Amino acid sequence: MIEFEHVTKVYETQNDENVALEDVNLQIDDGEFVFVLGHSGAGKSTFLKLILLEEKCTEGTVIINGQDLTRLKRRKIPYMRRQMGVVFQDFRLIPTMTAYENVAFAMRVTNIPTRQIKKRVPYVLGLVGLGDKMDRLPDELSGGEQQRVALARALAHSPKLIIADEPTGNIDPEMSFEMMELLSAINSVGITVVVVTHEHELVHRFNKRVVTIDHGHIVSDTAHPEVAEAYQAAGGVLPEEFDYAH
């Protein structure tokens, strides 16, 4: 589903170079649920941008669902993105549109037929527990409910992959737990889920694979303890609060 092969990303500035990711190797299989954990500035945002085709790697190869993104033609990028559903920290809902209209709009801009939209939108809003609030505007919904609308929108195109970028950053702890449970339920039907977060306390509550990024390197991976061992053998030091290797 997702493969990073010796991926390095360097941002060129006027006076310097910023190495955001360095020689990253990672594989996430179909149907997995993976937390990508790290401090602010660790490289999580760049990791996401490479998957979402917002940036291209400086070296290496990024493969999503069998497609080499480094070779993907520009005209095919929108079609590739439709295979992914993205939930952003700030929700990115259109304030003048109802919950129904926000989800429908995401489908309409990709030329989905109206008949299909009318059938799909109530279904995905029902999945996230908002079947009775389809006519509410974002400011009439709680933060947790707005996040659910964002999740419903991400599910609108029946994606194979859901990516959640700091999905609990703007909601309270109880709602955060409920959001993770929803994502777990989505994963249980075979959809790959990748949650990018810095909230290690929340990660502790779910028995899922955890990949930790620090200073542009993958420093531990609970599915592959040898990653942390190799990192430490090379002189790297694991941040204590993010050490899920053992």
From TrEMBL:
Q: Major place of localization? A: membrane
Q: Where is the ABC transporter domain?
A: 2-240
Q: Which GO terms describe its biological process?
A: cell division
Q: Where in the cell is it found?
A: Cell membrane
Q: Which UniProt keywords apply?
A: ATP-binding, Cell cycle, Cell division, Cell membrane, Membrane, Nucleotide-binding
- Membrane topology of this protein: Peripheral membrane protein
One Pfam match? ABC_tran
Q: Which InterPro entries match?
A: AAA+_ATPase, ABC_transporter-like_ATP-bd, ABC_transporter-like_CS, ABC_transpr_LolD-like, Cell_div_FtsE, P-loop_NTPase
Q: Where are the transmembrane segments?
A: none
A GO molecular function for this record? ATP binding
Assembly, per entry: Homodimer. Forms a membrane-associated complex with FtsX.
Q: Which family does it belong to?
A: Belongs to the ABC transporter superfamily.
Purpose of the protein: Part of the ABC transporter FtsEX involved in cellular division.
Question: What is the protein named?
Answer: Cell division ATP-binding protein FtsE
Organism expressing this protein natively: Gemmiger gallinarum
